[in-house]
Amino acid sequence: MLNNLQKRTLTALLIYPLIILIILYSNDVVIRMFLNIIIFISSFEISKMCFYSSTKETNNKKHYYFIATVFISIFISNILIKNSAWIFLIIPSVLFWLYIIFYLANIKIIDQIKMFNIFYFFTFLLVISSFYCSLYTIYLYSHKALIYLISIVAIGDISAFFIGKKYGKNPFFKVISPNKTKEGFIGSLIICLLAALGYCLFENYDLNFIVKVMFLTFFTVLVSAFGDLFISLIKRRSGKKDTGNILPGHGGILDRVDGLLAAAPVFLIFSYFLSAIIQ
Description:
The protein is mainly alpha-helical. Helix content is 76%, strand content 3%. The chain has one domain. The protein is built from 9 helices and 2 strands. The chain has a two-stranded antiparallel sheet. Helix 4 crosses helix 5.
């Protein structure tokens, strides 16, 4: 019988190559279908945590409204992307994540919420729609850039886990996620920057572009940690241990893409304004 770490590792080893193959060798239609599947499952997991009818409440329509509204927002996102107006969705998303960093850094107590209100409804709607918009827009700009984003966030997540497990002593945000440590976080930043430098040297980029990529990588990995913490906060407030159980060793889809929720819009906006689209 496999333990949780072995299940986690095996699942990652199976999923990551599959995602890379889809990005490299599929077409636009397949990518959109793949992203829509991720969005649907993620939306359902959020809704189940926050809006899903409990056994005591049989008439909660927020669940259905949320799922329907998400797909309306995806339709609108596609229109924005088609007309090169995605920035009108991504900038509010980046501002939201900057606020979340400030909010999480100052939170003292986490209370369980019995009923999530309309504020959370639109918060999750912004997070999910900008997540789709960012990934699809990055894909259209450069397949390699999307692979780089997914890879660097995965490296950051894995290195933070193992470095924190081996050397971690000081909790990063104890009130939200006591298992995450400062040592793990700092170690993941260093590992990701070294990986980014190695990649840039391998690709023989010039010094100016290397500096841009290093800057981009630093902030992408930094904000991805807060995406992870944000979902951890929502799980605690909803009284859930995992967002789901679809991925052995990981939990739900949200447990796997939580860092990307924040990293994707930040990666896109920085790449765009720095003219640092990885080709």
